Batch of 2 targets.
Target 1
Amino acid sequence: MARIQKKQRQQQLVEKIKSSPFLTDEELARLLDVSIQTIRLDRLELGIPELRERTKQMAEDAQTKVKSISKGEVVGELIDLELGKSGISIMNITPEMVFERTQVARGHYVFSQANSLALAVIDAPAAVTGVANIKYKTPIRVGEKLVAKAEVVKQRGNKYFVWVKTRNDVQEVFRAKFIMVSLD
Amino acid sequence: MARIQKKQRQQQLVEKIKSSPFLTDEELARLLDVSIQTIRLDRLELGIPELRERTKQMAEDAQTKVKSISKGEVVGELIDLELGKSGISIMNITPEMVFERTQVARGHYVFSQANSLALAVIDAPAAVTGVANIKYKTPIRVGEKLVAKAEVVKQRGNKYFVWVKTRNDVQEVFRAKFIMVSLD
DNA sequence: ACTGGTTCTAGTACTTACTTATAAAACTAG
DNA sequence: CTAGTTTTATAAGTAAGTACTAGAACCAGT
């Protein structure tokens, strides 16, 4: 009986901490109706760190996450660039980028990769997107690696005409024509 | 002299904590070459909470942020929706959405708002973007509030033709035509 | 040169949320 | 009923503080 009790309690402990990670041992003890020492023993056995460590961990994780998002001036990884001519970028479709239900990538991620590549490839200090013509050819799934190739096909005044073609391993999945406008 | 010293030091303190928020008072004292008590006095004056509070705050913020991001199947806030007909969404341009240098919004955020609204408005269980025709009319700056209106103009088989027009307070800033394709 | 006010440093007592260790109590099972 | 497991209790120690008091340094003006 006691053996089951213990397993059950530890299970509950794990769940409680997962659902609300800011509980102290004292609060947990009250919730599970055991002594603080039991909680501490359980934490030790289960390898769950103390409240402060948990909190710190979460804060640190958050920091690195925020950084990697705000770093994203360019969506995707730029692997080749000839300013004013062409460029290539790679992006992996991660689980955050897809619709939960269908596991198909949201269109704007693919667009974002192409758009920021188009922006990177033109030789101008500051520019905005003016016009875009876009075609999605096939649905894109989680785990796929997209390679986008951009080419500057024409330049007239402050307008740059850029074509971007995106492939997965198998075929072309997306293509776009951008007109980028450089600012003064 | 001493008065300037103090102001300067407190300035430095604020910056140090901002850039690496996991410093203890002791470490800060060493870095700024004053006693721990001075650091504590400064923190008190500046209303900066202790390390543990800061850590906790960050962890809590992160929790709610993760939630609100994962909620974001729709970019922008959906404020009106008539399935199969029309929809309206609002999005505020925050500092994370603009280029640091020019303070102009990155095109893909505006696209994302329009694209996810187009997706929301069509009456289909699952769909992807097929084609998009996009025009950015003016640069968009930080702080602006964008109102996007979508309208389903035609439906043929599993293809939906959706027009989206986005305005700020003053004028139309963006317009797009989407062909959305519903999946079986 | 002395005095007064600001700024900085030092020291003590107390707090929270623990850890480590040791021991006793309670339960439970053969 | 006794041995083993599980739980609780007690004590001492830790990190990173708060709150408070008091003294030292400095510097500025008269």
Target 2
Amino acid sequence: MQKTATIRDVAAAAGVSPQTVSRVINNRPDVAPQTRRRIWQVIRELGYQPSALARALVSKRTYALGLITADFSDYFFTQVIVGAEAEARRNGYFFILCSTERNPADEPEYLRLLTERQVDGILFARPSTEQDSRHVASLVHQGVPLVTTAYHLPGEQLTVVDVDNVEGGFQATHHLVSCGHRRIGMITGPADWKSVKDRSEGYRRALETAGIPFDPRCVVHGDWSYEGGYRAMQQLLLQSPEITALFAQNDCMAIGAMLALRETGRRIPEDIAVVGFDDIPAAAYCYPPLTTMRQPMQEVGRVATRLLLELIQDPSTERKEVLLKAELVHRSSCCSGA
Amino acid sequence: MQKTATIRDVAAAAGVSPQTVSRVINNRPDVAPQTRRRIWQVIRELGYQPSALARALVSKRTYALGLITADFSDYFFTQVIVGAEAEARRNGYFFILCSTERNPADEPEYLRLLTERQVDGILFARPSTEQDSRHVASLVHQGVPLVTTAYHLPGEQLTVVDVDNVEGGFQATHHLVSCGHRRIGMITGPADWKSVKDRSEGYRRALETAGIPFDPRCVVHGDWSYEGGYRAMQQLLLQSPEITALFAQNDCMAIGAMLALRETGRRIPEDIAVVGFDDIPAAAYCYPPLTTMRQPMQEVGRVATRLLLELIQDPSTERKEVLLKAELVHRSSCCSGA
DNA sequence: AACGGTTCCGGGAACGGTTCCGGCAACGGT
DNA sequence: ACCGTTGCCGGAACCGTTCCCGGAACCGTT
């Protein structure tokens, strides 16, 4: 890589002081228009690019954000990232990618990496499992701006952006109820996820509203995967073969479940109606096309980033929780489907 | 954020010069064991973290890599990223995320961002469309270490890691041929992608090997999406209703195509066999489960990053092209399926 | 006792910017 | 003619680290 020009080279070539060049590239006043033009000219000629590193060193602002993510196979989180990245970029910030995919225990080391690089803030785009989170709490106490999506840190007050999962679970279940179903199975995600608890809560409320007693045999845990949904469905049919409807807490599991259902000869939606959650692209093209709760995933990422930037601007901003709405998308896997 | 300790604070507290502290944190010799211990002690007490920024400024090494990506909805590229991130991390590097998802024209500005931040190298995890690529060529000439996946820059010699798409297309088609099919349709991706050209070339060779004449009416372009596969299939059935087999150049289009086929009453694989490409998770759980060419996507990311790091270590390393093999996965959408 | 070689450590400059502060010329008002 | 502003610019210090070099103390030889 050829040696790059510095601010001093530009200054020398333009016959001014580095100081004045600095004023020009930062659009500060107190430079004669003519001088300004000349300096820009020299900058272009020399192909000068200010060093973001040197700048950050003195200004204490890196315009870097950390992005903690855990599962790139999960459509939800990848879409959150897309939204987040777009919003960051719009504001001159960018993300450092930290994927704890393979090993959640790497997280503390990642956070160390991020603080060493003096990121201005950190966005958590990973689920809240009940792993050790003292290192996160410690960040909060250090005053590092922090926003999370779908991750609630017990005991700490922090800014969270998420989908209203209680409402979403309610709507999904209510839809099945309103189609006349009374025996409604549910495949959840892992028990320690907040979203699972919330969607399950929505399910329960919808049943309660309809005067249907909650039956624990109608509920099986899955792991969000196709495979998991497939197996959970087999389990569910064993436990309560009489169900006429299924609420799967994500689309992958719904699709896996539908395969299991077909294998038992059940027709969808005639014999059993299915509602998913997410609205992944495959949902519209699986067989049969899946009725599901669409989540505004990119929006979650955008809003989260916006709040993070606010927090960076003014660290005294009050922490808050923002919930976005999921919306029911009608397709043919369910009673009143197209 | 509370004021953080600097190397001078540590030095003062330990009664040594900053220089000596520097030697300790960098594990250099020429420090008495006792002094070393004392300094480590102080470092822990003060919670001192060396500033990566200041370090990078003098050492000219940022340990940052740029990651140019275009399509987070594409399973292939997200998996490449996962592999790349893991490999980078293993070597003490990390990625700055640059998604040109919304607007490919942003790319030059992204590259400017990356060079301003003095990244040590850049990984392109985006397809090679025939957009303007002068800015990329300019990077090459500046001597910035560069590795691409699935992206070939015409006229430039650079390190590329990709899947052997010619061979993959050949195998997919050959499999259909060996099941006895003679009229084999193909849904490709966008015409300007290198991988599309290569897979199509493989298709053509397989036909040729079997003595089947190539019929342009058997080929339709898609856009990689479910929707695109669905529409392409309708088009294909119009053009050549007599086909008994389909090679879709990715799984999404294959799944979309299967929906279109079912809508015409065709059974899979009895009436028409289908082979996809990628082996996305949905492939095993769609209906019917999809026979497809599995790509070692994470491996592509890992290898690409490894080569990039090599290039950074020694910029004189010869540029090369690495092709990984795709492998046929048998499922039930095809003749000899399970 | 003088000498060369280690071992351990520190002073000062540098990396590439920004900030603080102050200087100088021109200008308008009295 | 004098004085306070205003516009424009530069000198020096600093951000937090590392690198180059030199120097003191100690060791064993001759």
